[in-house]
Amino acid sequence: VYAMVDIQKVLDAHPERARLRKMEQALSAMDAAAQDKSPLLEVAKTEFEAAMKIRQNQDRAMIEKKQAELTEQLNAERRQFIEKLETEYRPLLFNIDLKLKSLQNSPTESQALQQEKARLENERQQKLKNKEDELVASFQSEMKEFSQELNAKSEAYAKKWMDDRMQELQKPVVSPEREKQRQEIVELSGRMMQDVRNAVAAVAEREKIELVWLKPAVRKAVKDITELVTQEITKAK
User: Fold this and answer.
1) d(CA 63, CA 59)
2) What's the pLDDT at 110?
3) What whole-number distance in Å separates Cα of residue 235 and Cα of residue 237?
4) Between the CA of residue 171 and those of 35, 47, 91, 123, 164, what are the distances in Å?
5) What is the pLDDT of residue 192?
6) What is the pLDDT of residue 33?
7) Which positions of the chain have pLDDT values less than 50?
8) 8 Å CB contact between 143 and 70
9) Are 143 and 66 in contact (CB under 8 A)?
10) What's the confidence (pLDDT) of residue 214?
11) Pick from 181, 135, 168: which is nearest to 31 by CA?
């Protein structure tokens, strides 16, 4: 009345089992190839280097432009400062020169005038030097800040570029060929399982069996019709 069957053993004996295994192996190979991102990573690396080179050229051009603008601005400020110094010191030095040309000066007075003239010229020169040092420091500070800002933006650009590309690479690649192979495997597996059901039904009817259990689920000794089902499938094919 009752019997059991080892479905896996019957499926392994199915005439189409070898073809199904070959199809499954081919699909596994295609899946493995799709998972191999090495060629895509090499392409991404080349594209990244090209993108970074373009970015570096753009940054260099921006730095050169900033240097030119800042140099022009600071030179204008230097010229204004020199004009201010001339306005301040020219009359003083001119007056001293007039006094030095006077024949009424004693040697002591002439010497004092010469010392005052030298003091004023040194003072003017020192103020100009201090201003130039200030302008140089300002130029270096602004360029450093500008370069750091550009570097930060470039690093953010590089990180976003790479993050975006990695997200693209991680997306599953849809392959019509792989999907077709997968569908064929599903269909063949379904046909094989239906063949097993038909064979089990045929054996059960011939052997007057009312109920057939799957072998792993059987808890007591019953008739094993696995070989009979296997023969039925082989005969049918």
Assistant:
1) 6
2) 87
3) 5
4) 10, 19, 79, 72, 11
5) 93
6) 74
7) none
8) yes
9) yes
10) 85
11) 181
Full 3-state SS string of the chain:
CEEEECHHHHHHHCCCHHHHHHHHHHHHHHHHHHHCCHHHHHHHHHHHHHHHHHHHHHHHHHHHHHHHHHHHHHHHHHHHHHHHHHHHHHHHHHHHHHHHHCCCCCHHHHHHHHHHHHHHHHHHHHHHHHHHHHHHHHHHHHHHHHHHHHHHHHHHHHHHHHHHHHHHHHCCCCCHHHHHHHHHHHHHHHHHHHHHHHHHHHHHHHCCCCEEEEHHHCCCCCEECHHHHHHHHHHHC
Residue indicated by tokens 């045929």: 202
pLDDT recorded at residue 218: 66
For the chain, the first-to-last Cα distance in angstroms comes to 28
Residue 187 CA, distance from chain mean position: 41
Contact 48, 165 (CB under 8 A): yes
> Strand order of the sheet with strand 223-224?
211-214, 2-5, 223-224
Q: How far apart are CA 204 and CA 14, in angstroms?
A: 18
Contacts of residue 82, Cβ cutoff 8 Å, sequence gap at least 6:
128
